[in-house]
Amino acid sequence: MHSQISTVGGFGRAPEATLFLRAQMGCRESANTLMARHDGLVHAVVRRQVLGALPFAEALQAGRIGLWRAIQGYDPFRGTAFSTYAWPSIMRHVWRAVKVHQREQECTTNQDHVRPPQPSEDPSHRLEQEAIYQVLHALVGRLAPKLRTVIVARYGLDDGPPFTYGQLGSLLGLSGERARQLHTEALVWLRHPAHSQSLRSLLGRHTLDDYQQADTLAQQWLRRRGGRHGH
User: Fold this and answer.
1) Is the pTM higher than 0.85?
2) Looking at domain 13-110, does it have CATH number 3.40.50.2300?
Protein backbone atom coordinates (compact mmCIF):
# COMPACT_ATOMS: atom_id res chain seq x y z
CA MET A 1 0.00 0.00 0.00
CA HIS A 2 1.30 3.41 -0.91
CA SER A 3 1.58 6.03 1.80
CA GLN A 4 -0.47 9.23 1.73
CA ILE A 5 2.65 11.16 0.75
CA SER A 6 3.31 9.04 -2.31
CA THR A 7 -0.23 9.33 -3.67
CA VAL A 8 -0.14 13.10 -4.04
CA GLY A 9 0.67 13.81 -7.67
CA GLY A 10 2.83 16.52 -9.17
CA PHE A 11 5.37 18.44 -7.13
CA GLY A 12 3.98 21.78 -8.25
CA ARG A 13 0.43 20.78 -7.26
CA ALA A 14 1.23 19.01 -3.99
CA PRO A 15 0.15 20.70 -0.75
CA GLU A 16 3.03 22.47 0.94
CA ALA A 17 2.90 20.18 3.98
CA THR A 18 3.52 17.24 1.66
CA LEU A 19 6.34 19.06 -0.09
CA PHE A 20 8.06 19.79 3.23
CA LEU A 21 7.79 16.16 4.29
CA ARG A 22 9.16 14.97 0.97
CA ALA A 23 12.01 17.48 1.05
CA GLN A 24 12.99 16.42 4.56
CA MET A 25 13.02 12.79 3.39
CA GLY A 26 15.57 13.67 0.72
CA CYS A 27 13.36 14.44 -2.29
CA ARG A 28 15.35 16.91 -4.38
CA GLU A 29 12.37 17.86 -6.58
CA SER A 30 10.26 18.84 -3.56
CA ALA A 31 13.12 20.85 -2.07
CA ASN A 32 13.67 22.65 -5.37
CA THR A 33 9.96 23.43 -5.65
CA LEU A 34 9.93 24.95 -2.16
CA MET A 35 13.16 26.86 -2.79
CA ALA A 36 11.68 28.42 -5.93
CA ARG A 37 8.34 29.10 -4.29
CA HIS A 38 9.89 30.98 -1.34
CA ASP A 39 12.82 32.65 -3.09
CA GLY A 40 11.01 35.99 -2.77
CA LEU A 41 11.42 35.69 1.00
CA VAL A 42 15.20 35.59 0.54
CA HIS A 43 15.06 38.77 -1.55
CA ALA A 44 12.88 40.45 1.09
CA VAL A 45 15.34 39.59 3.87
CA VAL A 46 18.42 40.65 1.88
CA ARG A 47 16.87 44.01 0.97
CA ARG A 48 16.46 44.75 4.68
CA GLN A 49 20.09 44.03 5.57
CA VAL A 50 23.10 46.30 5.59
CA LEU A 51 25.40 44.32 3.30
CA GLY A 52 28.49 46.48 3.50
CA ALA A 53 30.85 45.42 0.70
CA LEU A 54 29.22 42.01 0.28
CA PRO A 55 27.91 41.69 -3.30
CA PHE A 56 24.14 41.36 -3.57
CA ALA A 57 24.44 38.06 -5.45
CA GLU A 58 26.55 36.56 -2.64
CA ALA A 59 24.05 37.78 -0.05
CA LEU A 60 21.27 36.05 -1.99
CA GLN A 61 23.27 32.83 -2.11
CA ALA A 62 23.85 32.96 1.65
CA GLY A 63 20.17 33.66 2.21
CA ARG A 64 19.20 30.68 0.06
CA ILE A 65 21.35 28.45 2.25
CA GLY A 66 19.36 29.73 5.23
CA LEU A 67 16.13 29.06 3.32
CA TRP A 68 17.22 25.50 2.56
CA ARG A 69 18.05 24.87 6.22
CA ALA A 70 14.67 26.26 7.24
CA ILE A 71 12.95 23.89 4.79
CA GLN A 72 14.76 20.96 6.38
CA GLY A 73 13.73 21.93 9.92
CA TYR A 74 10.21 23.27 9.43
CA ASP A 75 7.27 21.39 10.96
CA PRO A 76 4.21 22.22 8.81
CA PHE A 77 1.83 20.88 11.44
CA ARG A 78 2.74 23.25 14.29
CA GLY A 79 0.65 26.10 12.94
CA THR A 80 3.52 28.54 12.39
CA ALA A 81 3.77 30.24 9.01
CA PHE A 82 6.85 29.13 7.11
CA SER A 83 7.87 32.74 6.49
CA THR A 84 7.93 33.34 10.26
CA TYR A 85 10.04 30.25 10.81
CA ALA A 86 12.42 30.83 7.91
CA TRP A 87 13.09 34.57 8.32
CA PRO A 88 15.62 34.27 11.23
CA SER A 89 17.46 31.43 9.48
CA ILE A 90 17.82 33.44 6.26
CA MET A 91 18.81 36.56 8.15
CA ARG A 92 21.40 34.68 10.21
CA HIS A 93 23.11 33.25 7.13
CA VAL A 94 23.15 36.60 5.35
CA TRP A 95 24.73 38.35 8.31
CA ARG A 96 27.25 35.57 8.70
CA ALA A 97 28.27 36.08 5.08
CA VAL A 98 28.53 39.85 5.65
CA LYS A 99 30.80 39.34 8.64
CA VAL A 100 32.99 36.75 6.90
CA HIS A 101 33.40 39.08 3.93
CA GLN A 102 34.23 41.98 6.23
CA ARG A 103 36.85 39.93 8.09
CA GLU A 104 38.43 38.84 4.82
CA GLN A 105 38.70 42.45 3.70
CA GLU A 106 40.22 43.50 7.03
CA CYS A 107 42.77 40.69 6.86
CA THR A 108 43.74 41.72 3.35
CA THR A 109 44.07 45.38 4.33
CA ASN A 110 45.94 44.76 7.56
CA GLN A 111 47.95 41.67 6.69
CA ASP A 112 51.25 43.43 7.44
CA HIS A 113 49.97 45.08 10.61
CA VAL A 114 50.47 43.26 13.91
CA ARG A 115 47.68 44.15 16.31
CA PRO A 116 48.61 44.09 20.01
CA PRO A 117 46.56 41.65 22.11
CA GLN A 118 43.46 43.11 23.71
CA PRO A 119 42.32 42.39 27.29
CA SER A 120 39.08 40.86 25.98
CA GLU A 121 41.13 38.23 24.13
CA ASP A 122 42.08 36.43 27.34
CA PRO A 123 41.49 32.71 26.58
CA SER A 124 39.53 32.01 29.76
CA HIS A 125 37.29 34.99 29.10
CA ARG A 126 36.60 33.79 25.56
CA LEU A 127 35.75 30.29 26.79
CA GLU A 128 33.39 31.70 29.41
CA GLN A 129 31.64 33.91 26.86
CA GLU A 130 31.32 31.02 24.41
CA ALA A 131 29.76 28.81 27.09
CA ILE A 132 27.23 31.51 27.96
CA TYR A 133 26.45 32.03 24.27
CA GLN A 134 25.85 28.33 23.67
CA VAL A 135 23.63 27.88 26.72
CA LEU A 136 21.66 31.02 25.86
CA HIS A 137 21.01 29.87 22.31
CA ALA A 138 20.00 26.41 23.49
CA LEU A 139 17.53 28.01 25.91
CA VAL A 140 16.10 30.34 23.25
CA GLY A 141 15.80 27.33 20.95
CA ARG A 142 13.30 25.79 23.38
CA LEU A 143 10.86 28.67 22.95
CA ALA A 144 7.74 28.34 20.82
CA PRO A 145 8.61 29.37 17.23
CA LYS A 146 6.93 32.79 17.33
CA LEU A 147 8.46 33.67 20.70
CA ARG A 148 11.85 32.45 19.49
CA THR A 149 11.60 34.70 16.45
CA VAL A 150 10.79 37.67 18.70
CA ILE A 151 13.79 37.10 20.99
CA VAL A 152 16.26 36.42 18.16
CA ALA A 153 15.20 39.51 16.22
CA ARG A 154 14.74 41.81 19.23
CA TYR A 155 18.27 41.19 20.57
CA GLY A 156 20.04 40.53 17.27
CA LEU A 157 21.03 36.99 18.31
CA ASP A 158 21.47 36.14 14.64
CA ASP A 159 24.21 38.80 14.42
CA GLY A 160 21.76 41.20 12.76
CA PRO A 161 20.69 44.62 14.07
CA PRO A 162 18.11 44.50 16.89
CA PHE A 163 14.51 44.97 15.74
CA THR A 164 12.18 47.59 17.16
CA TYR A 165 8.69 46.50 18.24
CA GLY A 166 7.34 48.09 15.09
CA GLN A 167 9.72 46.06 12.93
CA LEU A 168 8.85 42.91 14.86
CA GLY A 169 5.18 43.59 14.29
CA SER A 170 5.78 43.95 10.55
CA LEU A 171 7.79 40.73 10.51
CA LEU A 172 5.05 38.77 12.28
CA GLY A 173 2.06 40.53 10.76
CA LEU A 174 1.05 41.98 14.14
CA SER A 175 0.86 45.35 15.82
CA GLY A 176 3.91 46.75 17.57
CA GLU A 177 2.06 46.49 20.90
CA ARG A 178 1.32 42.81 20.33
CA ALA A 179 5.00 42.28 19.50
CA ARG A 180 5.91 43.94 22.80
CA GLN A 181 3.53 41.59 24.64
CA LEU A 182 5.11 38.57 22.97
CA HIS A 183 8.54 39.86 23.97
CA THR A 184 7.44 40.06 27.59
CA GLU A 185 5.89 36.60 27.35
CA ALA A 186 9.15 35.16 26.02
CA LEU A 187 11.23 36.82 28.76
CA VAL A 188 8.95 35.44 31.47
CA TRP A 189 9.42 31.95 30.06
CA LEU A 190 13.19 32.33 29.72
CA ARG A 191 13.62 33.70 33.25
CA HIS A 192 11.54 31.02 34.95
CA PRO A 193 13.62 28.81 37.28
CA ALA A 194 12.32 25.70 35.55
CA HIS A 195 14.06 26.75 32.33
CA SER A 196 16.98 29.02 33.20
CA GLN A 197 19.05 27.05 35.71
CA SER A 198 22.05 26.39 33.43
CA LEU A 199 22.29 29.98 32.24
CA ARG A 200 21.82 31.38 35.75
CA SER A 201 24.62 29.15 37.03
CA LEU A 202 27.02 30.55 34.46
CA LEU A 203 25.97 34.12 35.26
CA GLY A 204 26.09 33.65 39.03
CA ARG A 205 22.35 34.35 39.33
CA HIS A 206 21.21 31.02 40.79
CA THR A 207 20.61 31.82 44.44
CA LEU A 208 17.31 31.04 46.13
CA ASP A 209 16.44 34.75 46.13
CA ASP A 210 17.07 34.94 42.37
CA TYR A 211 14.74 32.01 41.71
CA GLN A 212 12.05 33.29 44.04
CA GLN A 213 12.14 36.68 42.37
CA ALA A 214 11.87 35.14 38.91
CA ASP A 215 9.00 32.90 40.00
CA THR A 216 7.18 35.86 41.57
CA LEU A 217 7.49 37.87 38.35
CA ALA A 218 6.19 34.90 36.35
CA GLN A 219 3.17 34.49 38.64
CA GLN A 220 2.39 38.21 38.43
CA TRP A 221 2.54 38.10 34.65
CA LEU A 222 0.31 35.02 34.51
CA ARG A 223 -2.29 36.73 36.68
CA ARG A 224 -2.28 39.77 34.40
CA ARG A 225 -2.71 37.47 31.41
CA GLY A 226 -5.57 35.60 33.03
CA GLY A 227 -3.56 32.45 33.68
CA ARG A 228 -2.36 31.96 30.11
CA HIS A 229 1.05 30.27 30.11
CA GLY A 230 3.78 31.75 27.98
CA HIS A 231 4.62 28.48 26.25
Assistant:
1) no
2) no
Q: Long-range pairs for 197-202 at CB < 8 Å and ≥24 separation?
A: 198/135, 198/138, 198/139, 199/132, 199/135, 199/136, 199/139, 202/128, 202/131, 202/132, 202/135
Q: What is the pLDDT of residues 147-179, one digit of tens each?
A: 888 888 888 877 677 888 888 888 788 898 999
d(CA 163, CA 157): 11
CATH topology of domain 128-231: Arc Repressor Mutant, subunit A (1.10.10)
Per-residue confidence (pLDDT) for residue 231, from 0 to 100: 39
Short-list 41, 5, 40, CA closest to 20: 5
Q: How far is CA 6 from CA 2, 15, 73, in A?
A: 6, 12, 21
